[in-house]
User: Fold this.
Amino acid sequence: MSAEPQTDTVDMMLNMGPQHPATHGVFRMVLSIDGERIMGVRPHIGYLHRGSEKLSEHESYGQVITLFDRLDYVSNLNNELVFVRAAEELMGVEAPERAQYIRTILCELNRVASHLLFIGTYALDVGAMTPVMYTFRERERVQNLFEHVTGARMMHNYFRIGGLKEDVPGDFAERVLSVVRRLRAGVEETDRLLTFNEVYLARTRGVGVINAEDAISCGLTGPCLRGSGVAYDVRKAYPYEVYERLEFDVPVGEFGDCWDRYWVRLRECYESLRMVEQALEQTPEGPVMAPGRRIARPPKGEVYAHAENPRGDIGVFLVSDGTDKPYRVKVRPPSFCNLVGLERMMEGAYVADAVAILGSLDIVLGEVDR
Assistant:
């Protein structure tokens, strides 16, 4: 009898992106697949590289703020804050109390706007069309408020080293309370529509799992880390601005899957709205800019400052040579670091789940490539 022929199987390479509607930017993945299962993934970045860190060396400190607006263009104000805080720490300057409260209010509203964008587009990723209509409607309320305060819908350039560009309009408190009230109703509506929808659960529960130990090892932060059950939040661990005066909880997941990462962001919307109400009630009258020279010229030295933006722990390492331009600016971007966990999340998953897993990281390529 002749021996049966031996056959070898070879994993097929499947290219996904960089021009792909579900990668949320120019991001490319090369999937190694065996049938319908993903055996491995190799991310490719660099298609949106703009040299923001190098450009910072040729701009004044005030001009660098506009570059941080463009890193993560969905959470502009959160990024502005971390840079101005780094410069303030280097200069030994503290923003007035009123400015700190206003910064905190705007950053938390920006967090809600960012998470709403994630929830709507993530629902599209897994096949649900309606939620994005709800979330964009609510996000527009925040964007309109930002435009009223800063004059811009996205690239605000509103925070300054030592405070704010100018005080908020006289009807700021009234408008914020109105927006918060409507946002809370909108988030609750989206919650009822999506969170326990059986199709949504089937597409996200048990998909893209990463445990707490692996999440920490990969350097994950923000909702991606908290979704795995690790209650690390820079606002709690290293309070800045006025966060130590506000009461809020840090939502955490249980299994570290796509649904947990979604759920953490949804709960953070509620917590952010709660913080905005507290901060608004505590906001004092007074100046919004510290006294001193308007052209920043920090003394020679270096500093590292970090904060919690909607995607996680964003850090800025700033080196000054004593001139009005930074000698070196290095960013620790959460989107870039969260991508490290992508391979562990995708290994063994179905090809059909690749988009759901990538989408659950909520990356912004402007921050990844810088």
Remarks:
- The beta strands are 12-16, 28-34, 37-44, 159-160, 163-164, 301-309, 312-320, 326-332.
